[in-house]
Automatic annotation (TrEMBL):
GO terms for molecular function: phosphoglycolate phosphatase activity. This is Haloacid dehalogenase. Coiled coil: none annotated. InterPro entries: HAD-like_hydrolase_sf, HAD-like_sf, HAD-SF_hydro_IA, HAD_2, HAD_sf, PGP-like_dom2.
Length: 212
């Protein structure tokens, strides 16, 4: 196994609380409606731009998106990504494993999180929802990342925190890893379908990858 492709939100970045805050603030500001975490998760699939375009009148799109990005960026200064995630990425990088991201979030918000939390140096490729025609559970993003990395299915795994991640990995012919190692993830119960492997501890996953 030479290549690991990760989902981003809820997998290698503890960004879901930040996303919830930014969407909740935006919907309150522009719709005067309160959205719960569960209601926001139910909107996932499109990028942030797509979600806001689906929920808001056309004249509000630009201002709402600017508001979302402002709140989302500011939240990174209040919250830090878990140190054990960085330790995992350090160990995998040192071991010579190439890593990539396949995420449904948009390029702008992905770049914000990668920059604000200093994660960009770990990943050789980042495929966002803006760069695919078909989002997860379709495997298009995974295929694109593998092509850019020169990776084969036999030497690649896909790691994520949602059913869509497992489905996308399977559709791409990869072994799949479901994770629930952050406090807030998209999947609180059992995965459906079940991934090939399941981890709730970052260090246990790292040890498994490195054969310890």
């Amino acid at each position: 196994m030479r290549t690991i492709l990760f989902d981003f939100d809820g997998t290698v970045a503890d960004t879901l609380p930040l996303i919830f805050t930014a969407f909740r603030s935006t919907f309150q500001q522009f719709l005067q409606e309160h959205y719960t975490d569960e209601q926001i998760v139910a909107l996932f699939g499109p990028t942030e731009t797509g979600i806001l375009q689906n929920k808001l009148p056309t004249h509000a799109h630009d201002n709402a998106l600017a508001h979302f990005y402002r709140v989302y960026t500011d939240e990174h200064s209040r919250v830090q990504n878990p140190e054990n995630i960085r330790s995992m990425l350090d160990e995998l990088h040192t071991a010579g494993i190439q890593m990539g991201i396949v995420t449904g979030k948009g390029r702008t918000s992905a770049d914000i999180s990668l920059r604000e939390w200093g994660l960009d140096s770990y990943f050789s490729v980042v495929i966002t929802g803006d760069e695919v025609t078909h989002p997860k559970p379709h495997p298009e993003g995974i295929f694109t990342a593998m092509k850019q990395l020169g990776a084969t299915p036999a030497e690649t795994i896909f790691v994520g925190d949602s059913d869509a991640d497992v489905l996308a990995g399977r559709a791409a012919g990869l072994r799949t890893v479901g994770v629930n190692w952050l406090l807030v993830t998209q999947k609180s119960g059992k995965f459906d379908p079940e991934p090939d492997y399941h981890f709730t501890d970052v260090q246990a996953f790292t040890d498994w990858i490195l054969g310890r």
